[in-house]
């Protein structure tokens, strides 16, 4: 567990999500969030509850995925937290046609 890290999602008391990465034991990190010792976003939104975690062998991969998840819609984060991969796939679909598939505009 030396080079890797956990990517995790917490549900805060106000219903919002917090996404983070830690190299420490996951249980310890959640306890730190709940104790308010880390400050920041979760300190005023306690208690927090773990809803998703994933181990990555390289911290760089965990950080890369953290950045991606932070850009996701709330609906996608909810689906991931539920483990609802069917909904997650549907929510990840393109909402408009790819530019190469669009009808040419007449002008």
* CATH hierarchy, class: Alpha Beta
**Count, helices:** 4
Low-confidence stretches: none
Strands side by side in the biggest sheet = 2-1-3
Return the average pLDDT rounded to an integer. 91
How much helix is in the residues?
A: 25-40%
Helix/strand structural class: alpha+beta
Description of the structure:
The protein is α+β, with helices and mostly antiparallel strands. The chain has one domain: GIY-YIG endonuclease. It has four helices and three strands, in the order E-E-H-E-H-H-H. It has helices at residues 26-35, 59-70, 74-82, 85-92; strands at 5-11, 17-22, 49-56. The protein has a three-stranded antiparallel beta sheet with strand order 2-1-3, sandwiched between helices. It is elongated. The N and C termini lie far apart (60 Å). The mean pLDDT is 91.
List keywords for this structure.
107 residues, alpha+beta, GIY-YIG endonuclease, three-stranded antiparallel sheet, 4 helices, elongated
What's the topology here?
Layout: E1 5-11, E2 17-22, H1 26-35, E3 49-56, H2 59-70, H3 74-82, H4 85-92
Antiparallel strand pairs: 1-2, 1-3
Helix pairs in contact: 3-4
Structure in a nutshell:
The chain is α+β, with helices and mostly antiparallel strands and 107 residues long.
